[in-house]
Design a protein that fits this description.
- The chain is α+β, with helices and mostly antiparallel strands and 274 residues long.
- It is built from five helices and 19 strands.
- The longest helix is centred in the N-terminal third of the chain and has 13 residues.
Amino acid sequence: MENLPDFRERNAHEIDYRIYGEEMQYVEIELDPDEGVIAESGSFMMMDDGIKMETIFGDGSQKDKGFLGKILGAGKRILTGESLFMIAFYNNLTGKRNVSFASPYPGKITPIDLLEFNGKFICQKDAFLCAAKGVSVGIEFSKKLGRGLFGGEGFIMQKLEGDGMAFVHACGTTAKRVLAPGEVMRVDTGCIVGFTQDVDYDIEFIGGFKNTVFGGEGLFFAKLQGPGTVYLQSLPFSRLAGRVLKSVPRGGNSKGEGSILGGLGDLLDGDNRF
């Protein structure tokens, strides 16, 4: 198990974890007595006997913050396209118990220690997987018009706040870049998984007639300026879904099936589904 640093006192529950797998990963959370973890609906994989599951409203940061606070937290989650509810898992017995959560598509699960990032991490709307009880899962509004309209994520992203461990998932391979003050990198808008609060995120027009019309990479780059840490994914899920939809046979058959030329037709015409 990977142990969290204990040089500062945490308000969130201090959980241990282990990530299994390569391309289809899941994270196993080890809960001591009275420890808990929150997760998105649909991410649960398995748990030991003795763990209590509870459906909760809102962002999961405070179990007893009142009815109005719960409604407000649930409303924020609607804006990010998530369910009204989150799931909390508690170890109510003596001894350690394990609960596991799986990524919904091929890729990597990345642990985020919010204590190392000054208590806040901003990520794309569907990146959050699970977190220690006490971590707040809220929304981050974009104050820049261009970023909201052309950034690929709209005006709303998720923000994870607190001092506990959180886990985000990405499609494909995950890349981590630590940007120095003033250092700039440009990436595809769909490749952003998340970044720390000090990173300046904006949108930049690619420019150039040929680049715009024939480049095939969209009209805008995401411009990220340090200082801060950025996590990227090699295969945005929207890109993967687009390729799958493009390859779906029209009329129930692929291009060669049922034709006179059969597979030879693909060779002559070119199998351009990908």
